[in-house]
Design brief:
Number of helices: 13
Number of domains: 1
Shape: elongated
Number of strands: 0
Distance between the termini: 23 Å
Strand content: under 5%
Largest sheet: none
Helix content: over 70%
Length: 346
């Protein structure tokens, strides 16, 4: 019979998958804002398209990002069920706050900040594995939107020159089809990088609390290494983010697809391709980056390629402030959650 502690750990795994769902819900705009704003797909068709490719990514990518989250940021010796639960509460709370405000903040950095904040609340700053993967992770808060902007800007300029003698009607028709491909690529990269962060959290939890499952005759729950990602965890994380994306997040879709710059199918293709390429590279090297930061930079790059005034920099600046606040805000909420949970559960 499963002990109370085992049930508690299983309940936290469910909370982690709820976060993964909220990640897909919150970050749906990353994959579908451009394809909806250009009217290539209806909102309903777009979320189904994106959600399916979020899940299909399970067959394409490895688990490098999951391993970074599981053992590259926080000392695994500090991690326990309460730390993980508090970290998730911090991340989910910040996701809900920014969703309500219509701000495309990073679910990834909310999870990273929440996880770190809960660990610090338990064991102090020494709980963080510094510098470890932190330097890359923090650097890409700045680098991912810049890379997305640069790649999308380059694609826009290059394709504009190549197609300069083509009829606008034919270009528009071709890129309406091509945007389906670029949206699929963006959804694949989003599903890969973001779902792996939840995988890493679940595996670190199972490894940290492995003793509570000693009397549980379920082999899938026995994790003896923070690097071993059970197959059921992989599929559950991808399924949760895909379903969350299908649920949508229309407040943020409006900000991403309409308020930063006006897009046509050609621009939508360049933005999605620029974002996807940046995320593919980050996932390959196991860097947990923000899909939100990346696609926002890419959309701005497309606008800037036409003229700088095409980008509503005031809106972009408001988004950047949300990025800056995400890790410390989620960490603060998670730290407070840990204090409360520790007092209640001990």
């Amino acid at each position: 019979m499963i002990s109370h502690s085992a049930w508690f750990v299983c309940a936290i795994i469910l909370v982690a998958l709820i976060f993964d769902f909220s990640n897909g819900f919150h970050d749906a705009a990353n994959s579908i804002a451009t394809v909806v704003s250009t009217r290539v797909l209806s909102p309903t068709a777009a979320v189904v398209w994106a959600g399916c490719f979020n899940f299909i990514a399970v067959f394409v990518f490895g688990t490098a990002v999951a391993k970074t989250m599981g053992k590259g940021l926080v000392d695994i010796g500090v991690v326990d069920a309460t730390v993980v639960l508090a970290g998730l509460l911090g991340a989910i709370s910040w996701n809900l706050i920014t969703w309500y405000a219509g701000l495309p903040s990073s679910s990834s950095h909310a999870l990273i900040g929440g996880y770190a904040g809960a660990a610090i609340a338990k064991a102090g700053i020494s709980a963080l594995l510094w510098p470890g993967k932190w330097v890359q992770t923090l650097a890409f808060i700045v680098l991912s939107p810049m890379l997305g902007l640069a790649v999308a800007f380059g694609l826009t300029v290059a394709l504009s020159w190549i197609l300069r003698r083509s009829l606008p009607r034919k270009v528009d028709k071709a890129f309406r089809l091509l945007q389906l491909v670029s949206a699929a690529g963006m959804s694949l990269s989003h599903g890969s990088n973001d779902s792996q962060k939840t995988m890493g959290i679940i595996v670190s939890l199972l490894f940290a609390e492995r003793v509570v499952f000693d009397r549980v005759p379920v082999a899938a729950l026995h994790v003896t290494s923070a690097e071993a990602i059970p197959t059921w965890v992989v599929f559950a994380a991808y399924a949760a983010i895909g379903i969350g994306t299908m649920a949508g997040g229309w407040r943020i879709v409006k900000t991403m697809g309409q308020r930063i710059t006006k897009l046509q199918p050609f621009g939508g293709f360049c933005a999605e391709s620029g974002g996807a390429i940046t995320l593919f590279v980050a996932s390959h090297f196991g860097i947990p980056v923000s899909t939100t930061h990346t696609i926002t930079g890419a959309i701005s790059g497309v606008g800037a390629a036409h003229r700088l005034s095409a980008v509503r920099w005031g809106v972009a600046g408001r988004i950047v402030w949300a990025w800056i606040l995400t890790i410390p805000a989620a960490a603060g909420i998670a730290g407070l959650s840990y204090v409360v949970l520790h007092a209640v559960l001990r």
